[in-house]
Automatic annotation (TrEMBL):
It comes from Schaedlerella arabinosiphila. PANTHER family: HTH-TYPE TRANSCRIPTIONAL REPRESSOR PURR-RELATED, LACI-RELATED TRANSCRIPTIONAL REPRESSOR. This is LacI family transcriptional regulator. The lineage of its organism: Bacteria, Bacillati, Bacillota, Clostridia, Lachnospirales. Residues 3-56 form the HTH lacI-type domain. Pfam families: LacI (PF00356), Peripla_BP_3 (PF13377).
Amino acid sequence: MAVTIKDVARETNLAISTISKYMNGGTVRPENRERIKEAVRKLGYSPNHTARGLRTSRTYMIGLVTGKMFSPHTARILSEIEKKLRLLGYSVTFATHEENGIQAKEYVDYMVERGVDGIISTPIGTGQDYLKSAAEQKIPVVILEENSAGNQADCVQVDCSGGAYLIVEHLIEKGHREIAVIKGPDYKLTSRERLRGYLRVMEDYGCPIREEYMIQGDFSYKSGYEGIRRLWELEKKPTAVFVSNYDMCLGAMAAVYNLNIRVPEELSVVSFDDFELSVMVRPRLTTVRQPLEQMADTAVDLLYRRMQGDYSDFPRKIRLKPECVCRDSVKSCLFPQNGGA
């Protein structure tokens, strides 16, 4: 038998009107709020449990749970998602988890209580199953970029390993062999895939993989800056560096200018992600461009299918192909062939 609001009132010894006020977003006393939240967790109560189970009632509201919304990467994806959902007649509610598993779970639980019809989420690195309440209430979920928590959910991602392979292969084809990488945090699948692409192409072409050229970063501006500084302190410096995300590239380019490193004459620089910086700096940067609009559109299309009851291919993982955008930041180290006899 489904848990009702009366059960919550009985468990908390509060009036049904107080429970209803809290469930509809009203203000109740802090001590009552905590009693209600504890009872809801204990009993497994959801306001629209019956209606949601039968999928006969809709709110036309979608929950978006993301990391840092101010990054150009996330902002572009969310903008496209919101635009497409609006065309389909859905409104959007946003929440940022900041890589905090407890916070992410609270946001998802809140969205479930409010009766969202679906959820699109970027992953967190804790491995915590923060989407459990959505799964229990059979709310469709699409995860962007990686599904590292092992959730039984649909996932739309970019082939990061393939993108890294492409950009480093471009360096090799230009004659570079001493190629460094500023990598991201090990707990992120996207980071591990980019490193995997770097290692694979270096091995395929027989280029030396030097431990001192593999700089640990964390996808932040500071770690990109520090990475270039460390590389430039080496006695044997690399001729090229692959910076594996946009924020680190911002820091890397700041270090390049502060250390008076000439690009590409002294150091060729390539980056994963193609945003404004790539064409604003001189020389313009060679980058991997992710199909962010396509990722957003694909995620919305997949979520919409699930909300219409089509689970014929569940769970599905869709991998999109990035492209290498060649500009001016890579020097050719190839020796010109001598002509004539």
